[in-house]
Specification:
By secondary structure, this protein is of the alpha/beta class. It has helices at residues 31-39, 41-50, 53-61, 66-76, 81-89, 99-110, 123-129, 146-149, 156-166, 180-188, 199-208; strands at 17-20, 27-29, 95-97, 115-119, 143-145, 173-177, 192-195. Helix 1 (31-39) packs across helix 2 (41-50). It starts with 16 loop residues before the first strand and ends in a 6-residue tail after the last helix.
């Protein structure tokens, strides 16, 4: 008897699966909206301009509990305490689906292309505000959440973990992220990489990899 056909077509390029960043690729993430919901837009802009929000938030993405992060803010930066608490309390207001990108995920899913997520996201906030809210996540075979793994992009270990869980070698995967530094880290490990700018360009790039029909 002839061997069974593979569960998905093998493109000529060798890339057979997609690893997706979530924030600002499939799910719009706007911290300003969450902070403003608690303290107003002017104060929210002042906070995001005057406080190192990126580093503070990244620590939680890498596994730091939010209770600890907020307590540190209260202790060391009381002037920003209401703003940080507002971000945490109103986090859901920061999120919305990006329909054009999600349409690409749906088309890949219909074509049988393996897909997984790889997101820098606090495990607490992901579980509370994403896991049960966005149907697009059901189209992914799994999602590697940095806060759960206590490793965040661009740490090479988290890309290798995503590849391992996908069941595909890194060179059989393409990674899509809006941050060039993360894409470069993935490429250094052998993954193909796409810096996301918009869904139309993304669709063209995935078609060039033979993951979508031309």
């Amino acid at each position: 008897m002839p061997p069974s056909a593979p569960p998905f077509p093998t493109p000529a390029t060798g890339v057979a699966g997609v690893v997706w960043d979530l924030g600002n690729v499939l799910i719009d993430w706007q911290p300003l909206a969450a902070v403003a919901a608690g303290v107003g837009e002017d104060e929210a802009r002042r906070f995001l301009a005057g406080f190192d929000f990126g580093a503070w938030n990244h620590a939680c993405d890498a596994g730091r509990p939010w209770a600890e992060a907020l307590a540190e803010l209260d202790r060391l930066h009381p002037e920003w305490s209401p703003h940080g608490h507002a971000y945490h309390r109103h986090f859901a207001a920061a999120l919305s689906e990006l329909p054009a990108s999600v349409a690409v995920v749906r088309d890949l899913h219909a074509a049988g292309v393996p897909q997984c997520g790889l997101t820098n996201w606090s495990h607490e906030l992901y579980q509370a505000h994403a896991a049960g809210r966005f149907d697009l996540l059901d189209l992914l075979d799994h999602v590697v959440v940095s806060g759960m793994e206590r490793i965040a992009k661009p740490d090479p270990r988290i890309f290798l973990l995503a590849a391992e869980r996908s069941g595909l070698a890194p060179e059989r995967l393409v990674f899509v992220d809006d941050k060039a530094a993360n894409v470069e880290a993935a490429r250094a490990l052998g993954l193909a990489g796409i810096v996301f700018t918009d869904a139309v360009t993304l669709r063209t790039e995935l078609t060039a990899l033979s993951l979508l029909p031309g």
